[in-house]
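Worked example 4.2. Below are the chains of a multi-component assembly; read each line carefully before continuing.
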Amino acid sequence: MKQKPVTIYDIAKEAKVSTATVSRVIANNYPVSEKTKKMVLDLIKKYDYQPNAVARSLTKKESKMIGFILPDITNPFFAQVFIEAEKYALTKGYTLILGNSMNSNEIESKYLRDLSERQVEGIIFMGGRINKSQPDHMEINELKDVMNKIPVIMVNGKIDGINCSSVHTNEAKGIDLVIEHLVSHDHKKIGLIGGVKGVTTTDIKVNAYWRSLTKHGLLMKENWQIYSGYDVDSGRKAVETFIHVNESDLPTALIGINDLVIIGALKACRQNHLHPFSFVGFDNTDLTKNATPEITSVSHPYKDLGEKAIDLIIHTKTMKPEEIWLDPYLAIRESTNRPH
Amino acid sequence: MKQKPVTIYDIAKEAKVSTATVSRVIANNYPVSEKTKKMVLDLIKKYDYQPNAVARSLTKKESKMIGFILPDITNPFFAQVFIEAEKYALTKGYTLILGNSMNSNEIESKYLRDLSERQVEGIIFMGGRINKSQPDHMEINELKDVMNKIPVIMVNGKIDGINCSSVHTNEAKGIDLVIEHLVSHDHKKIGLIGGVKGVTTTDIKVNAYWRSLTKHGLLMKENWQIYSGYDVDSGRKAVETFIHVNESDLPTALIGINDLVIIGALKACRQNHLHPFSFVGFDNTDLTKNATPEITSVSHPYKDLGEKAIDLIIHTKTMKPEEIWLDPYLAIRESTNRPH
DNA sequence: CTGTTAGCGCCTTCAG
DNA sequence: CTGAAGGCGCTAACAG
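Applying the procedure described above to all four chains together yields the following structure tokens:
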């Protein structure tokens, strides 16, 4: 089964030319006579010769690989960004290596190291340590070590003390869009649920929420903003505390820190026969389209996010750190209506 | 920012030993005096030296990378398997390279080629060409070419004319489980929707469906099995044709070829005020847990699927092709009840 | 247009 | 226990 691989040398020998010539016809970046070119090409086909990318990487000192570290590809939000990045990278001749950290710091570190040893030309980082407002020293230092060797860029994240390029969804603007939308549907009492205080993206959204309420002169009740986490169950729990705490004075619309949370909230409301709510998610994952009712959600500019991330890696060698901000948009669906 | 990388040679020089010695302390597989070992280790730390995995791959002729080609990582079914494989691979010292084919034949071919050039030690293949009952010659030949060089293994797929190792979910058994479950809840009229005739997994499920109905002596109506595709919309469409074709004589339970289809069906039923149905999905993705009601679904043995796939790659060098069949189980949820 | 010659960074005999 | 030397497969000057 495993045949010994044919090398550029084998081809050269049989073609009675030098390896340099073979290399040239493969790279096709240098004049070679039509005749020898054809001959070499024929042999390449005959033996199904494939250049050894590892050897090439070693000589050229470029691996044409880019690392991508994220917490969990099973999460459609990350998967969306990743796949856009991959599609784009492919057109540029790059291959991505995905590292799922599973929210484990050690695995994150392991991949950081592994990818760098594998000579990836850059690492795209999403989630994990780059979203903590208080990352520890070790974590920062590891990143810095890697950044001494290859460019690291962050998607929707930022760490104090690390100065690298990044692409961001303007999530604050996303919240603005939601609230404008709700206000235009006559909602005056709007709640925000989910997330964890101290996680960058949560903080951004929460701040934007309060700012936007103020701007629209809406009622602000501290109890209408509830931290609870990021999964479906967090959404359910949030609704329950909600009912407890706010009793009769409930908002007419609920914004989830992400889609999972709002789905949990929707389920909980249904179980408790609470219908006056409008629901808005964040991330615009498939979940929102598949839910009943279909849920309005803020969408990241996935394509741009992925493509810019790749561009930053490819070009960062020659550029100084750059921060790119991209606007989200609102995917409006059935879950937002006028309050009764 | 980009400092010139420190090599094994730099370390050797400063330690006044040979590169061989440094190599030995790194590999830690050969006697080296404690003193020089410590010295080298200190220097490695001092310069944050990391061995160049590309160079190592070249000399050792092993890349410690495994390729994984699948249609779309955004699909939680594939993502599940991939992530289990990745976790396991990591413990074995391997890194996975993911290739999303986006259901494009060309991309599939491109990755097949790219991964093989990158010297991955094997390729795990899911979906795409390995699920067609009539793959074309080109597709098969490409696979064969690759298989001459490195092991290829298939997950839940098989092609005539290709003889390689594979891991499978026993999907027929999954259908059996569903029907038993439904029968035990007094269902006698059971439908199956979704899928495409000629796609291996669909064919398996459809065959199992008829066989199981026979076995239980249930009513078999040709119109109760409807091909329609794999996405949410296919589910919706299936229900609509259903209503058209079967008019008053509707089954009391519906099985979806996968979770997406059953979710579409659920939505359509709700819109048409059709409530007597019980619903069962296939794949046990998060979708089923997040739906309302939560949907009963057949679960693949994800962990085993992923781990066996890796094992097959790692060990296949010394073994002859092997076919592993794993049993699914039924995740029972709210969507299956007794018929009225 | 083509061949020769050095490496790329590391590992692995083979001698000490 | 340690060093010297060769080579993995390919590319990039440098000569012709």
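Take a moment to check your reading of the output against the notes. Residues 17-21, 24, 30-33, 36, 55, 57-61 of chain A lie near DNA strand C (CB under 10 Å from a C1'). Residues 13 and 167 of chain A are 50 Å apart (CA to CA).
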